[in-house]
Amino acid sequence: MAEKVSICGLDCGACGAYQATQKNDDAERKKVAETWSTEYGADIKPEDINCDGCTSKTGPHFSHCNVCEIRKCGIEQSVENCAHCGDYACDKLSKFFEMVPDAKTRLDGVKADLDR
Questions:
Q1: What's the pLDDT score for residue 33?
Q2: Which of 25, 86, 103, 114 is the most core-located residue (most Cβ within 10 A)?
Q3: Rounded Cα distance, 52 and 58, in Å
Q4: What pLDDT was estimated at residue 84?
Q5: What are the residue ranges in the chain where pLDDT is below 50?
Q6: Quick one: pLDDT at residue 59?
Q7: pTM, rounded to two decimals
Q8: What are the distances in angstroms from CA 41 to CA 2, 44, 60?
Q9: Which SS3 state, helix, strand or coil, does residue 14 take?
Q10: pLDDT value of position 104
Q11: Strand ranges (E), 1-116
Q12: Does residue 50 sit in helix, strand or coil?
């Protein structure tokens, strides 16, 4: 699936919830729910696996998207993703990058393209 950059720099296109939703694949939703339940020690049901990506205004969104502070900030700033923000990369985003360095690499690439 083609790369779809989230507000924080994750690749929504590589996300199991996004993929299952775009394919409307209930078997894939079940598989993702089982995997994430194990990985994150949570009780995630197949019906929870629905997401059109965090940049979608109308949703659906996976539950974390609804409480994500980075997403909330990006929406408030009306930016496509954080690379488009005048405060890139803020402290909140920098802390996130420590956990997910690929997101930084992705957004740095977007920022470099914007600055050309």
A1: 95
A2: 103
A3: 9
A4: 96
A5: none
A6: 82
A7: 0.84
A8: 29, 9, 23
A9: helix
A10: 96
A11: none
A12: coil
